[in-house]
Predict the structure.
Amino acid sequence: MTEKISILDHIGNTPLLKLNHVTDSLGVDIYVKCEFTNPGGSIKDRMALCMIQEAEKRGDLKPGGTIVDQSTGNTGPALSFVGNTMGYKVQIFLPAQLKSAYDSTDRVRIARLYGANVTPIDLNEFIDNADELQGIERAATFVAIRMKQAYDLQQNDSSYWWANQLCNVDNTKAHREFTGREILQQMDGQIDGWVASVGTGGTLLGVAQTLKERYPDMKVAGVVPTDDPRIEWVRSRAVHNALERFGVPKLRFVIEDLLEGKVMDDEITIENADAKNMADRLCREEGLFCGMSSGANVCAAIQMARTMDKGSKIVTVVVDRRDRYFAEYPNEHYVV
């Protein structure tokens, strides 16, 4: 009976398509999992739903509660979409500025339309001489400040639940138990490579865990943007040090599971211009109305393809819809 079906039941089971025009005739097939077709518009719908459902089961998130997290992109809208649909309030902390063309206006609008309260966080309001911070230290400090806001809300009021996407193992679970299994079923045979942006680490790690069980010799590549190398925040422990300075207890990041498990055979850094160019080509030539990280994933898949035998098959992911970046047009920026 259709009256018992929720919009949330339509998260997942997204199409898997073979690219036909942008792969440079390499003799290697590249397939994309079309996550922009999720009802909330991005792959983060899966993570949001799984994290919230598991928190309910544990009793961490109670009826009438508020979900809180920090985000630079798709997690904010996804938590707002899923959380509000399930009857919760949602509080999101976003950066007020980044050192790039980053403009979160469209993601903020989406999150607010779904019902979230969105608070921009200005680094200068929390750190003296913030402009002196550079590179990885600056980026790690900025995310740590936003994590601190979420942590404090949860500590001070038991009705708040911090989703903590960067450290939540249910992020990985969503992709291990659902995305990865869907790919296995849809490919129905050979898979030689898996490529995804590192981001939180959840998509890359969770899918790799599932696919590697069936194809242990499969190659795995993580994609890193030049302007947002968050894997280095964790590898250098810059984010751990920043959190400690702000009084947040020790946390384990999903990226640590990725690194310590030696899941990646390669880390591929993609320039912003290349990611944007490929996203444009995917729109024009493949009809895939996707954002910059999707372009980066396909660029990296093509790089992997050049190292593989003809007839190999690589899977990557088209992450989200292009209309989340209209405020940045025509200078959209690749930030995971």
In short: Strands lie at 16-18, 29-34, 66-70, 89-95, 117-121, 160-162, 193-197, 219-225, 266-270, 313-318.
